[in-house]
């Protein structure tokens, strides 16, 4: 059993862990120009982006998911003029209900963010900066950041016999289809659970450490909140995982400085929630009422 490098060197192993992470989705535009947008998925990417926007004024952010929202907030809070280009009318589409998403959007706009939903046709390099073209209007920007999601890095796995689809397939011990090879992080998927954020990866590492030391341990997923890093409007959520029949319900007293919405399935079991403003202090209250996402802790 060995890993072979490009130079032909073979490194033998007893057990192998694949933690190859993810790559940003490509920005494909009808009229081209996606290559002009920065995409940040590593510390090196971030350093290049910081260098690019030094002494600049106007930044375009493409995408309004978790990362797009966080970058938008940080940039406008740092004094940049920010234009968001989103295919959705509201941020965090599919993660939170419209009532909570609307609170977040209005807050970002109150900070000075411009929000555009006309589809982006292309990006052109100008004499200074870039021109972003839509069917309605063209917009100028000194720099462009695309935050349109990630996909598992499968470059190495495609050269192996490890089973994979959109990500490396693992079982509850994080074992792949090949004996003594494991995977965790952005590149790994446990059934339909392809969770690409910090909390589940910590749970994976905790379980896998025991397994690698010959104490086989299944990964345990409690209900895990995602803290959206928007310091001027505290915000956290537990996304609804998978296809669950049910509906979001705004809670009594929600509004003004405290916003609470909870997703109940058809059996009135809580499967997700979203909290904004002062309501984030209720996080543990709502977490305590949710079932584990996967298994029971045996560590």
Defining traits:
299 residues, single chain, alpha/beta, 4-stranded parallel beta sheet
In short:
The chain has helices spanning 43-53, 66-77, 98-110, 198-212, 283-287, and strands at 2-4, 10-12, 16-18, 22-24, 58-62, 81-85, 114-116, 120-125, 130-134, 138-141, 143-146, 150-152, 168-170, 181-183, 188-190, 226-228, 235-238, 246-250, 258-265, 270-277. A hairpin with a 3-residue loop joins β9 and β10 (138-141).
Report on the architecture of this protein.
Strand 8 and strand 9 form a beta hairpin. Helix content is 19%, strand content 28%. The strands form seven sheets. Strands 16-17-20-19-18 form a five-stranded antiparallel sheet, with helices on one face. It has a four-stranded parallel sheet with strand order 7-6-5-11, covered by helices on one side. The longest helix is centred in the C-terminal third of the chain and has 15 residues. With 299 residues, it is α/β, with parallel strands linked by helices. It is globular, with a radius of gyration of 21 Å. It contains five helices and 20 strands.
């Amino acid at each position: 059993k060995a890993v072979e490098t490009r130079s032909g060197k073979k490194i033998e192993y007893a057990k192998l862990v694949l933690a190859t992470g993810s790559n940003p989705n490509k920005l494909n535009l009808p009229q081209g120009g996606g290559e002009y947008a920065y995409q940040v998925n590593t510390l090196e990417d971030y350093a290049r982006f910081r260098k690019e926007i030094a002494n600049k004024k106007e930044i375009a952010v493409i995408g309004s998911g978790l990362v797009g929202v966080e970058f938008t907030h940080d940039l406008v809070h740092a004094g940049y003029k920010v234009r968001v280009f989103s295919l959705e009318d509201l941020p965090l589409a599919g993660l939170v209900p419209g009532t909570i998403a609307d609170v977040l959007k209005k807050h970002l706009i109150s900070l000075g963010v411009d929000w555009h939903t006309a589809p982006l046709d292309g990006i052109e390099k100008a004499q200074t900066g870039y021109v972003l073209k839509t069917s309605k209007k063209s917009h100028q920007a000194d720099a462009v950041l695309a935050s349109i999601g990630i996909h598992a890095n499968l470059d190495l796995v495609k050269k192996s016999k490890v089973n994979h689809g959109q990500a490396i397939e693992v079982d509850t011990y994080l074992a792949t289809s090949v004996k003594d090879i494991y995977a965790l992080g952005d590149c790994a998927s446990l059934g339909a659970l392809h969770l690409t954020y910090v909390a589940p990866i910590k749970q994976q590492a905790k379980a896998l450490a025991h397994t690698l030391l010959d104490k086989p341990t299944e990964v345990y997923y409690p209900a895990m909140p995602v803290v959206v890093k928007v310091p001027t409007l505290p915000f956290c959520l537990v996304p609804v995982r998978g296809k669950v029949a049910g509906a979001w319900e705004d809670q009594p007293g929600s509004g003004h400085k405290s916003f609470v919405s909870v997703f109940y399935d058809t059996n009135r079991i809580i499967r997700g929630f979203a909290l904004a403003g002062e309501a984030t202090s209720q996080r543990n209250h709502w977490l305590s009422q949710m079932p584990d996402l996967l298994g029971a802790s045996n560590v």
